Amino acid sequence: MDVADLKTFEAVVRHGSMNKAAQELHTVQSNVTARIQALEQELGVALFQRHARGVNATPAGQRILPFVARISKLLAEAESAAKDDGTPHGVLTLGSLETTMALRLSPALSGFARNYPDVRLVIRSGTTEGLIRQVVENQLDGAFVAGPIDHPEIAQERVFTEELVLVTSQAIQTLKDLPKTPGLRTIVFQLGCSYRQRLETILAGMGIVTAKPLEFGSLDTIINCVAAGIGVTLLPRGVVAAAAENARINVHALPRNRAWVETLFIRRHEAYVSSALKAFVAMAREDQSGGSKHD
Asked: Hey, what CATH class is 3-82 in?
């Protein structure tokens, strides 16, 4: 299989269109069609189903797609390794929980940009579940996620430890008030967020049944909704410290076995660790003193 054919295949899958893939690849549609037909002939299976609006990958096409991403990543890593003389440079694409980005990574981001101007740093936020998937699928060089995790393709190391607290409006003075709150709702990030799962477990342990959760993608929106009395959430203490000091919310400590969670840095086991990646993780570790004394 030719690498160019595989890149063409990936572009067609992503766009669902031979024409749009051709535009991205700066070629004509007939060249894209020819490459796909040659790849299908070599493999002996149809990779796309044609229809009036474009194309969809067949089950066979869907099965080889992860390998295409892996091959592309390996080629990029080989080039990066050849050019890596120990001085951080190139593109570094990382993922992070939004809470970790807000609480922990801001100093590292500014310091890294200042010290390593030859690195183009890209940070994508997401849930733990989503970030793990993106690392496994070679879409990220690494990510900061909430532990514990157990994945055979993932190498991990603890970077931070966070104290999680239950966050409510000021109308709820103690945790004993929660069961008395009618129509209690949780305010959470989207499905796949480990804090969300932990919150549901904590409330269930208190015998509290909640209504359907409200999902938001913004940390500020979650805090504002909780402050307005719409529901409750679970977040690192450091993230909500300012809102608590301004008397917008109440923060409730939890038993230690429920409160403490490790933030892990993860990457694929066999992935090449570039000088840029080593430098960023080292800087993030150095800046962790700004967090909990339990780190």
From this structure: mainly alpha
